[in-house]
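Person: I keep going back and forth on a fold encoding question. Show me how you would write down a chain together with its backbone fold. Please set it down just below, with no commentary around it:
Helper:
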Amino acid sequence: VSPSPSEGAPGPPPGNPFSPPPDAEPPTLLLSSNRTSPSGEGSVSVAATSAMAGTAETRISVDGIAAQLLRDQYILTALEFHTELLEAGRELPRLRDYFSNPGNFERQSGTPPAKDQVLGPGGPLHRAGSISTLDSLDFARYSDDGNRESDERVAVLEFELRKAKETIQALRANLTQAAESEVTSQERKNFKSSPEIQEPIRPLEKRALNFLVNEYLLKHDHKLSSITFSDENDDQDFELWDDVGLNIPKPPDLLHLYRNCGVSVPSPRDTVDVSVGVDFGDLPGNCIAQDPPKKPDLLHQQQTEVVQELEYQISLLTNEKQSLAEQIKKLQRCVPECMFMLIKLSPAFQQALLSFCRMCSDSRLGAEVSRIADSEESVMLMLGRCLPHIVPNVLLAKREELIPLILCTACLHPEPKERDQLLHILFNLIKRPDDEQRQMILTGCVAFARHVGPTRVEAELLPQCWEQINHKYPERRLLVAESCGALAPYLPKEIRSSLVLSMLQQMLAEDKADMVREAVVKSLGIIMGYIDDPDKYSQGFELMLLSLGDPSERVVSAVHQVFIPAFAAWTTELGTLQTALIPSLLARIEKLLMQGEHGLDEHKLHVFLSALQSLTPPLFAVVLQSAPFTSRAKVTGDIPAIEVTRFPRPASPLQDVATIIGSREMLSALLLLYDYQLEHEGTTGWDSLLWVVNQLLPQLIEIVGRINVTSSTCVHEFSRFFWRLCRTFGKIFTNTKVKPQFQEILRLSEENVDVSAGNDILTKATVPIYATGVLTCYNQDEDRKLLVGFLEDVMTTLSLSYAPLDSLKASFVELGANPVYHELLLTVLWYGVVHTSALVRCTAARMFELLVKGVNETLVAQRVVPALITLSSDPEISVRISTIPAFGTIMETVTQKELLERVKMQLASFLEDPQYQDQHSLHMEIIRTFGRVGPNAEPRFRDEFVLPHLHKLALANNSQTVESKRIDIATQLFEAYSALSCCFISEEVMVNHFLPGLRCLRADMEQLSPEHEVRKHSCVSMSIASSLVGEDAKTKFLSKMGQLTTSGAMLANVFQRKK
C-alpha cells in the first residue's frame, strides 16, 4: 500500500492522472540511447505531442511530480524518474541536488525511525565507505523488512562503478573530438595557400587506417607483412580498436570501403530508439520540448545501420546466386539423361548402353578422375591425395620439377596431417640430392617460410630437419645443416637460440663428413647474425674454438669466412669485442705459452692467432664507427676511391671492412677523416683506438717476446698477424703507434744482448717479427731503407756481443721466402762482408747459407759467389771456415757447371792447401758439410770429390795424435758415411774409396776407449763392411746400411739384434 500524498502538495486528478484519455493520439517519443553525452539541460530534449480531450484537465509539471515523489518517500521511483530524465537529456535541478547530497541518506545504525517521526526528504539510509549518494543505490534489491547494510554497500559500490564508467566514456568522447581537431597552424596555412594539396592526415585518421590495413593483412594471410607493419607502428595496439581513439565506432573493413567508395549513401531513414522507462507522452502538462536537430553521433549510427542492412541484402543475394549456380550445374548434368528421356529409353537399356563406354570409377585413380575439383580448396585436397602416389613414379633426376607443386599444396592444404606428409615427401624427394637439387629444395623451404610465418615453420618444417639429423647419407644431413641456416631469419628468436643452435652444435661435434660440418659452421654463422640472447655468447665462443680446431681445412676456412665475422658483428653489437672476445683469445695464447715451455702446441697457437687475424677487420670497423669524426662523415661525389692495396685481401666479403661499414663510399669518407685525425689531432677521447694502442699492442709485443725464436711456424704466424694488423690500421698508425713501441723495446746496443743481465731481447722472436711483420708492411724506399738499417744493426750487435744468431737467422728465413726481398738481403750481407770486424764477416758468411736455397742462380753467380770468394780469402781463418757451409749449399742446389767448378776449386783449396793441413775446425766443417750436402749433390761431384776426400780425411785421422781431435773427426766421419750410405755408389768408388774409408774409420774406433758409445755404433757398420768382402759389395752394403740411422738409440737396437 502506498502512502498518501502530503497535504498542500499538488496532486493528480481523480482516476489515473498519468494516463492519457482514450481519444488521445499516441505520443511520438525520440530518446537518445547514448548515455555518455554531456548532460546539460536543453542539450537533448524529449519531443512528444499529446492531444488531451477536454479543457478542464489539469497538467502537472515534471518538477511537481519529482517533488511529490520525494515527499512521499518514493525514492526508488524518483531515482528511476531521474535516470529517465537524464537519458532524455532533461535534468531536473531538484532531483540532481537531492541525489548528489550524501546527507539525505544518513541514519543511526540499528535504530529504526518512529512511525510518526518526521524524516528528512531522503529518509534514513546508511552511508557506504565511498562517496555514497542515492545515485549509487539500487532499491530494487531491498524489501521493506529489515536493514541490509552489506547489500546497501554493495549496491552503492556497483552504482559508483557504473557512474565512473559513464564518466570515462564522456571524457573519451571529449578527448577524441580534441584529437580530431588537432591540426597544426602550419599545416592549415599550407592547406589554405595550396588548395591542390590534400589536407594533412590527422592522428586519429592515421591510427584508424593503420588498424584497418593491419586487419586486412591478417585476414588475407599476409602475416609477415602484418608483423613488419606492426613493428613499424609500435606505438599502436592492433589487438584493440579502442586504442585507435576514444569512443570511436569501428568502420567497415578496407574491402567494404573500397567496394562502396563510389556509391552514394542513401539518405538515412527516420528511426526510433526505444528505451525502457516512463513514456513521457503519457505525462500531463506541457513538459516536453520540441525535436532538436539530430546529433552527429545519431546520424553516424543511422548511416551504419543502413550499411549493415545493405550488407545483409548483399549476403542474401550472394546466397541466392550460389543456389542458382548449383541448380544450373544439376541441370547440366541432367542434359544427357533428358536426351535419353526424349527418345524414351528404359533405365536398364541406358545403363547397358553406357557400359560400352570403358570407364573406371571404382579405383582410387578412377575416383579422382571422375571427381573434378570445383573450388580452390578441393584442388588442394585433390593434390594432397594424389602427390604421394605421383612422386614415387617420377624419375629421380626429374623429381625437383615436383617441388613447386608440393610446396604450394603444403602451404594451402587445410589438414595439418596432410601438410606434414607433403613436407616429409619434400625432404625425402631425392635419395642423395646433389648441390643444385639441394639449392632448389632450400629455395622452396624459404618460400614456404615466408608464406606461412614463424609459427608454422617451427611446427612443420623443423621436425623434418630433426628427423634427418642422423641420416645415413651425408647429402641428406647436408640438406639439414643448410636448412637450419636458410630458415634462421624466419624462425622465432627463442627457437633460433635454443633448438636450432643445439641441433647444429650436435652435428658439428658428431658428424664425420667434412662437407656436413662445413655447412654446419656456415649455418652457425647465420644463426649468430640473428641471435639476440646475450647469454649465448659463451656458447658461441666455444663453438668458434671447436670449429677452428677441426681437422678439415674446408671447415676451418668456413669458420674464417662466415662464423667469425658474424660472431664479431654480434659481439660488436653487445659491446664485448674489445672487452671479452679479443682478451679471451689473448689470455689463451698466454696460457699456451706458459704451458709450452717444454714443447709448444703450435697447432693451438695457430688456431688462436688465426682467429685474432680474422677479428682485425671488425676491430678496425669499431674504431672507425666510434671515432670522434664519425658523425661528420658524409658521402659526396668528390671522395677519392680506396686504393686496391689499402687493405689485405679479405678471406670473404664478410671480412671486407667496406661491407662491415656499409659501403665503399662511406669507408672512403671515414678513412680520410681517420688519417687526418691521426696526423693532426691525435687520439684524445678516442676510447676504442686508445684500447688498441695502450692495451692490445703492449700485450701482443709481450707475448711475442716469449715465443721460441727457433720455431719457424710461430714466427711466421705472428709475422703474418702483425702484417695484417698494420696494413688494416694504415701507414700513419703503423709509423706513429706500432713502430715506436717496438723500437722502445729493441734498443740496438750491446747492453741489450747481455744474457747474463737478462737483456736478451735481441735474441728473441721480437726481432724477426718486427722485421718481417711490421717493417715490411709498406714497400717504399724509406721503408726498405729502414728495414735494411735494422737488419744491419741487428747483425752487427749480435756479432759483436757473441750472442746467438737465431733471431737474425729467423729474419732471413722469413724474408728469404719472398723473392722481393732477395736483393735487400744481399745488400745487408754485403754490408757484413765489407765490415771491419771479423765477427760480423763470419756472421755474414753463415747467413749466405740460409739465403742460397731461395735465390735464383743468376743472383748466386753475380752476388753470392763473388762475396763468398772474397770471404774465403779473408785474413781471419774463422771467416774462411764460415764460408764452407755456404759453398756446400751451392753445390747442393746449383746446376750451372761453371759455377760448380768455381765452388769445387775453392773447396779443393781448403782441402789440399798445406796451410790448412792442421786446421781441425776447418776439417770438421768440411766433413759436416759433405755429410749434409752429399746425398743431394750431383753424383759426379759426390763420386769424384766428396768420397775420395772423405777417404783421405779418414786415413789422415788414423795418424792423429790428439785423442780428442781424433774422436771429433771420427764421429763426424761416421755421421757423413751414414748419410752417404743411402746414395747410389758405383762399384769402383765403393771398392776404391768408400770401403777403404770405412776401414780407416774402424781402425779409429778400435783405438778409442770402450766407454765411448760411438764405438759400439761403429762396430755395427764395421762388421757390415767386413762381411762384404768377396760378395756383391754394392747391393749387399746398401741393403745393410739402409737399415741404419744416425740415431744412437736406433743403432744400439740394431747392434742388439746382431748378437
About this structure: The chain has a mean pLDDT of 77. The CA atoms of residues 924 and 969 lie 6 Å apart. The chain has 44 helices and two strands. The two ends are 142 Å apart (CA to CA).
